[in-house]
Amino acid sequence: MKQNTRQDEIVIDLGELFAVVMRRIWIIIASAIVLGLTVFLVSKFMIVPKYQSSTQIYVMNKANENTLTYSDIQSGTQLTKDYMILVTSRPVIDKVNAELNLGMKYSEIVDLISVSNLDNTRILKITVEYTDPFVAKQIADAVRDESANHIKGVMDIEQVNVIEEANIPEEKSSPNNLKNTIIGAFVGAVIAAIVIVVIFISDDTIKTPEDVEKYLGLSVLSSIPVQAKLKDLSKKKKKIIKKKSAIKKPEKKK
Q: Considering the entire predicted model, what is its pTM?
């Protein structure tokens, strides 16, 4: 990016910008590696792993004890959202807290629980995520049993069947070390690229004779080398002169 004084506007040369980024691609790669490795170490050793345990229930809503009508199915599907709310209601959570002696607040237990409806059916899936896989299973089972009783009492439901008992998870559900590492590396690369682009855009100095001709529209008659190069040249010249004088110096007659 250079400032065009004739048109009083900022012009960004995309080709030059791309070239600058490619010349500093090693900085982007190094930033991605450093941040990706940092995120991996944090995710691996500093974040407490969590485990998920799930259980499922089927809510029955019969108007007739002997038959299951279409209206029963339709009304049960429409009331599924109500059932989901009742699963995490305070009476259910308080009983689970007292039964398992968790010693946690209502909001803390609710944050551990997620309730979903499978494909608009009357099947409710209750999932608990906790740091201990055995405790996660206990909470899921307790929530299922207490919510089933609560739903039958509040909604006057005849029956709530257990489809699937809660499992003891063998693998952690979070954190995902590979995913976090990839995200960290990507963020590191993006940050490095942004910094390089910002520095390039902010730099409006003239560096080469070609820049003078391109952005100012002036012809360069001559250029003066920088002081450091002049010093190097002067040192080289002094060495050459000393060598020549040593060669040409005549010997004294005895």
A: 0.66
Instruction: Of 51, 230, 199, give the one whose Cα is nearest residue 134.
Output: 51
- Is-contact 95 146, C-beta < 8 A? yes
Whole-angstrom distance, CA of residue 143 vs CA of residue 140: 5
Indicate the DSSP class of residue 212: I
DSSP E strands in 61-207: the ranges are 113-117, 123-130, 159-164
130: which strand partners?
Answer: 51
Cα→Cα distances 34→31, 55, 191, 246, Å? 5, 41, 12, 56
Peptide bond into 175 cis (omega under 30): yes
The C-alpha R_g of the chain, in whole angstroms, comes to: 37
The total of other beta-carbon atoms located within 10 Å of residue 195's CB is 14
Contact (CB, 8 A) for 124 and 56 = yes
10 Å Cβ neighbour count for 254? 3
* Token reading at 15: 């080709």
The token pair that represents 239 in the structure block: 């060495």
How far is residue 154 from each of residues 75, 84, 88, measured CA to CA in Å? Answer: 16, 13, 14
The sign of the dihedral angle between the CA atoms of 187, 191, 192, 196 is positive
- E runs forming strands in 171-225: none
In contact, 53 and 166? CB cutoff 8 Å: yes
pLDDT tens-place string over residues 154-178: 887 778 889 999 999 988 998 999 9
Instruction: Give the tokens for residue 11.
Output: 């012009």
